[in-house]
Amino acid sequence: METRSFNGVAPPAGGQTITFTNGQPVTPDKPIVPYINGDGIGPEISIATRRVIDAAVKNAYGDKRQVMWYEIFASEAATAKFGTPLPADTLDAIRAYGVAIKGPLTTPTGEGHRSYNVQLRQTLDLYRCVRPIRYYTGVPSVVKKPENVNIVIFRENTEDVYAGIEYAYDSPEAAKLRGVLRELGAQMRDDTGIGIKIMSRFGSERLIRAAIQHAIDKGLKVVTLVHKGNIQKFTEGAFQKWGYELAAKEFADKIVTEADLWAKHNGKMPEGKILLNDRIADAMFFELLARPQQYSVLATMNLNGDYFSDAVAAQVGGLGIAPGANIGDSSAIFEATHGTAARLAGLNVANPCSLLLSAVMMLEFFGWTEAAKAVVKTVETTIGKATVTADLADLMPGSTSLSTSAFADALIANLPTES
Ligand code: NAD
Predict the structure, then answer these.
(1) Domain containing 214 — which CATH number?
(2) Residue 162 annotated among the catalytic residues of the structure
(3) Is residue 135 included in any domain, yes or no?
(4) Is 394 a catalytic residue?
(5) What are the strands, taking DSSP E only, across 265-343?
(6) Are residue 290 and residue 155 in the same domain, yes or no?
(7) Active site residue 228
(8) What are phi and psi of 25, to 5 degrees?
(9) Model's pTM, two decimal places?
(10) Same-domain pairing of 80 and 180
(11) Do 275 and 389 fall into the same domain?
(12) Mutation pick for ligand 1 pocket among 130, 340, 395 (CB with most ligand atoms within 8 Å)
């Protein structure tokens, strides 16, 4: 397939295009992978990530396979170069090449532009945010048994209160909506701002379907629908209902619901089946602290997913490590889950693991499992030797504190020779 230039930059020679069939990527041996360095610490962790990934791919496949990195621009770098923070070419490049990997981007709170991350997810319909969260031995954690956490969060990415349907309390739109709502019997004060929570059956089903399919593909044992349906009956409550209905319709041979576990199986899970249960969101926070080992895949809506992703990541040692991917049926963006850490920018001290492990998710997405496993192994080995970046070193007595680039060198040196 012909390759195209974006933002006036030619793609790397010899690079090929990823295509999608039924929502699954078909990855050539030399895929063009657009990358956005990001703001703050973004460029430093991005360079470290690309170096480690290149080394792991070379170790695993020699010259047969190679990631063909291709820089595209967003936020500060795009504003500096093109006078606009999210050029159409950046979105078009991701559409054309099917994937991208990105560092963190700055978003102001309460005013100014909408989050570029949210815009990217919604414009490209990257409807599921996938965050696998596990523990790496040696990483300091606030809980007693962080090793019990091994959870993948599937967060719906396009709906809920993130849809951006919001009106300031003193706007004509809010006044109009207050009028309509009062006609429907709702009561509210005249100085009420309005944000609308939307959740569709279609949007909920495709997220839950992906979560169940992930459990099937990876041999995981439990899928939990996390919701606040006791209060928000027609949005989060509907999510729960649609989830069970979907499972009965599409996965009846693979799934046992918690109700059936007791009604039909005497509390004993039949061999090879996946347990489907649901939990009210507030109780789930307790569950994840008290008995995380009983959960493996969470399927939840946008705002809950945001909370849970960070809360669970905190249990295994924080945001510097946990990776993330935003995936649709025709493109995907892999991204660091932390922010721009502006005070560390340019100091060569930031931890590149979140972005690196996001790149591992990308390798898995390609089906390049040997290289993906090798990077996970070297992260385990390198942290296991107590050689870490400053954020972890500060909390790990007896550890060696490495710069971002020296940590990347250590990761490359520790790559397993056989996968
Ligand atoms: P932050 O993640 O940038 O920082 C929180 C704390 O974690 C800080 O102490 C920071 O120094 C530390 N930290 C974060 N990443 C680190 C790393 N890789 N290595 C070492 N230490 C690290 O969060 P914030 O301060 O709330 O947000 C800063 C900016 O980032 C805001 O503009 C926010 O909107 C944006 N943000 C972007 C994304 C994204 O692009 N996906 C996500 C979250 C926040």
Answers:
(1) 3.40.718.10
(2) yes
(3) no
(4) no
(5) 274-280, 297-300, 323-327, 332-336
(6) yes
(7) yes
(8) -75, 145
(9) 0.93
(10) no
(11) no
(12) 340
